[in-house]
Design goal:
It is built from two helices and nine strands; from the N terminus they run H-E-E-E-E-E-E-H-E-E-E. With 237 residues, the chain is mainly beta. Strands 3-9-8-5-6 form a five-stranded mixed β-sheet. A four-stranded antiparallel β-sheet has the order 2-1-4-7. Strand 8 (160-170) and strand 9 form a beta hairpin. The termini are far apart.
Length: 237
């Protein structure tokens, strides 16, 4: 067995019981609970679309990629354009991989907003900030250290109903990416008129190919010194 395979196998075994998901949000001074662990049905009403478990998604084309299987939520939260949304994790142990934060404008009510079509766009991301690939110079390492991630909703974004999607992509197992996405329902308020278009937009699932070097990579054997997160560039307004 190759050394990289041994290392990645050990990493997978060590982290098997330590996957994670967004379990709450802070918007302004208000904290909104999310789902927890393997008993989401016992959680209080939330802005988060219900997800079933902590298990990773292994292919970028899996239907669960959109919102980890979540299709509805009882509540929504108002967010002023230009303000921040902070997502919190109750646990996270993987230190190699990007953090990506996406949004999707609903055409109408949340009850009919399923996230389909090429309308997802990124508002934030952090991949590798300095080599090597095996270091902890990654966005997910910051989540591991703080169990939270704060992003700013673009100030020029047009108001309306949106999904916000936090995605952690764990790359600690060679050539076996692990995706962890969750979605919440937010109402953007403000006087902005901007909307992303063209190359900033993507469909989820399948926002990238499984063979994309940002998706399938062996961080132990690769000689790359830079990394580009998969999917479109971040739209800042």
């Amino acid at each position: 067995m190759h050394f990289s395979s041994i290392v990645s196998t050990l990493a997978l075994a060590a982290g098997a019981a330590a996957h994670g998901a967004v379990t709450s949000y802070q918007i302004g001074s208000t904290t909104y609970p999310g789902y927890t662990g393997y008993s989401p049905s016992t959680s209080p009403p939330t802005i988060q679309r219900q997800w079933p478990d902590y298990n990773p998604i292994l292919t970028v084309t899996d239907a669960k990629m959109r919102c980890n299987g979540g299709t509805s939520a009882a509540l929504n939260a108002t967010v002023a354009a230009g303000s921040t949304v902070t997502a919190f994790w109750s646990q996270w142990t993987h230190q190699q991989g990007p953090v990506m934060v996406w949004m999707y404008k609903c055409a109408g009510a949340f009850s009919s907003c399923d996230g389909s079509g090429k309308s997802w766009f990124k508002i934030d991301q952090m991949g590798l900030t300095a080599p090597p690939l095996t270091s902890t110079n990654w966005g997910t390492a910051q989540v591991e250290a703080t169990l939270k991630w704060t992003s700013t909703v673009p100030k020029s974004l047009a108001p309306g109903n949106y999904l916000i999607r936090h995605e952690l992509l764990a790359l600690h197992q060679a050539n076996t990416p692990q995706f962890y996405p969750e979605c919440a329902q937010i109402v953007v308020a403000g006087s902005g008129t901007a909307q992303p278009s063209g190359s900033y937009l993507a469909s989820i699932p399948a926002y990238a190919a499984q063979s994309d070097p940002g998706v399938t990579i062996d961080i132990y054997s690769s000689t790359a010194t830079t990394y580009t997160p998969p999917g479109p560039a971040v739209w800042t307004g």
